[in-house]
Amino acid sequence: MELAEAKLKFIEAWGKLGSEWGINRTMAQVHALLLITPDALTTEEIMEALSISRGNANMTLRDLIGWGLVEKQHRAGERKEYFFAEKDTWMIARQVAQERKKRELDPVVKILNELSEVKGDDKDPEYKTFKKSVTEINKLAKNVNRTLETMLKTEENWFWGSIFKIFK
Amino acid sequence: MELAEAKLKFIEAWGKLGSEWGINRTMAQVHALLLITPDALTTEEIMEALSISRGNANMTLRDLIGWGLVEKQHRAGERKEYFFAEKDTWMIARQVAQERKKRELDPVVKILNELSEVKGDDKDPEYKTFKKSVTEINKLAKNVNRTLETMLKTEENWFWGSIFKIFK
DNA sequence: ATAAACTTTCAATAATTTTTGAAAGTTTAA
DNA sequence: TTAAACTTTCAAAAATTATTGAAAGTTTAT
Question: Any idea where the HTH marR-type domain is (chains A, B) (predicted)?
């Protein structure tokens, strides 16, 4: 396979995975493009490479910066802004984990905590089932959160090394 | 908070979380409803509870069955089909992990494997950057896959117990 | 100040995804 | 059979989400 073809495949695959996991496809594609590009790109170049409009490119880049996955670079004597992606995969994984935890998991955990406070009659099957499900999911969510928090503080090799040491 | 209000909140929260993670909101809501309902429900009752159409209810239930999260029940002397959800949260987590791995992660890993075979000139920065990103992501994906596979084979308490033993 | 170079905004449009509901299909009982 | 009870299908409509592009905004150089 040619490098050029491989790049397109990578961008496509990353975009698809993103969209299946609740991340805008274009955003994932711009990220993919910057990941496999050695130097920083201008908005113009990104528009060109992915055939997207200026507005779309601009907003997507802003989002990616918001996720901590892309940074601006400016070059002496140039007006244009250049964009480049954090290339360290473990950093990317942590960044994404942190943002999604904050934006999506934490709010649900907050609600689950409230819901597990709801009082009722333990003889009532409606109440019992509700209580049990909420409590169990809450427990699971807390374990996931705890693991994510660990991951955020940990080096990649140590993290996986430790995990696989147990699950040899 | 009233139980009835709490139930609605739970259904809403579960639906929102689902939609943020690439799962159809209605599907997550039907699942939530069945999770907190002690006994099996008919299509009619689900339509009523969530104000959705018959077609939607039918398709959603079919999907949930396909995900292994819901089962049909039939009762002697009745024509109607009843639906109920697997209530064990760990089972749900495993079921979802397994399906998403199969449907979404595995295809990407397959492509990443192909892409990491692409040959090129190690002096070419374009090639080097591509190669490095693909290889690193591939490694991460394999670690995730390995962890998921372990999770699929493991009991809940043992899984978390083992994880937190390291990350005390 | 002015204009060129560049970025941002956002209403309108397009694309995609979800939902509806009525018709067609199936099963069971009499 | 036939008809009632129930389920499935799917084209059309609605809802949601993403994209465009031109105008407005900003910055810099002269």
Answer: 22-79
ipTM score of complex = 0.93
Q: State yes or no: pLDDT of B167 exceeds 80.
A: no
The distance (Å) linking the CA of B67 with the C1' of C17 is 19
The answer to whether the beta carbons of residues A122 and A128 sit under 8 Å apart is yes
Q: Does B102 touch chain A (CB under 8 A)?
A: no
Helix (H, G, I), strand (E, B) or coil at B167: coil
In the predicted structure, residue A28 carries a pLDDT above the cut 90 = yes
- CA B130 / C1′ C7 distance in Å: 29
3-state DSSP assignment of residue B82: strand
Q: Based on the domain organization, do B107 and B161 belong to the same domain?
A: yes
Q: What is the CATH number of the domain that holds B68?
A: 1.10.10.10
- The whole-angstrom separation of Cα B6 and Cα B28 is 16
Structure-token pair, residue B122 = 């190690």
Answer yes or no: do A9 and A79 share one domain. Answer: yes
Q: Is B34 helix (H, G, I), strand (E, B) or coil?
A: helix
What's the structural domain count of chain B?
Answer: 2
Nearest partner of B160 among A157, A131, A167, A89, judged by Cα: A167
Token couple for B125: 């920065």
B116 and B144 in a common domain: yes
